[in-house]
Specification:
α1 (31-60) packs parallel to α4, α3 runs parallel beside α6 and α6 runs antiparallel to α7. The strands form two sheets. The protein has a two-stranded antiparallel sheet. Strands 2-3 form a two-stranded antiparallel ribbon. It has helices at residues 31-60, 84-89, 91-102, 105-128, 145-154, 164-177, 182-199, and strands spanning 7-9, 14-15, 18-19, 25-27. Helix content is 56%, strand content 5%. The protein has seven helices and four strands, in the order ββββααααααα. The termini are far apart. The chain has 202 residues and is mainly α.
Length: 202
Amino acid sequence: RAMPSSVVQAQPSTTAGMPSIPRLRLAIQNRAHLVLYLRLVLILGALFVFVYAGTNWINHRRPAGTLYRLFIDAELRIPFVPGMIFVYHSVQLLLFVAPLLLLEDARLLRLAKAMAAVIVLSGVLFLIFPTALGFPRPAQVAGYEWIYAKLYLLDLPHNLAPSLHVSLSSLTLLACVGQQPRWFGFLLWVWLAALSASVRPL
C-alpha cells in the first residue's frame, strides 16, 4: 500500500545484521504546505506582537507598587550565566523550523490554534498580574553586550508569568514528538529543559 504523499517515512534497514537507528518522519515541503506555514507564522507573529508588546507597554507604565512579586527568595540565588542567552534564543529553531519540517497540515493547524489560545490567555494574565523582576538586570555583560542590549530593549521585565517562552515551546514539542522516534523525542525533552532553565538567568 502506498504511503500518503504528504509524508515521507524512512523504513528501517539493517547493516551487517544490526538494526539501523529509526529516522525522522518528515513532512514534505510542497508549495501548499509552505504557504500554509508562512500564513500561520504571519498571523501568530502579529498576534504575539500585539498581545505581548502591548501588555508589556501597559504594565511598564503602572506604578511600581502595583507590580506583583511572583518569585521566592531562593530563586534569587540562581547564578547569572551569560552564555545561556544562546540556549534562550535557540527557541526560534524549535518554534519556526521544527513545525515546518515535522508537522503535516492538520497538525500544523492544531498547533497554531493552541498557540493562539495560549497567547491570548497569557495576555489576560499579564494584565491581571503585572510583575517585577527580583533582581536588577546588569547594565553591561562583557562579551555579550550586543545580544543582551537587544533583548533588554525589546523585552521589558513585566510579563514574567506565565512564560510564553516555555509554554509555546512545550506546545511545539508535544505536537512534534508524537510521531517521531524515541531518540528524537528524548532530545526534544532535553532541549525543552534547557530552554526552561535559560529563562531565569536572564
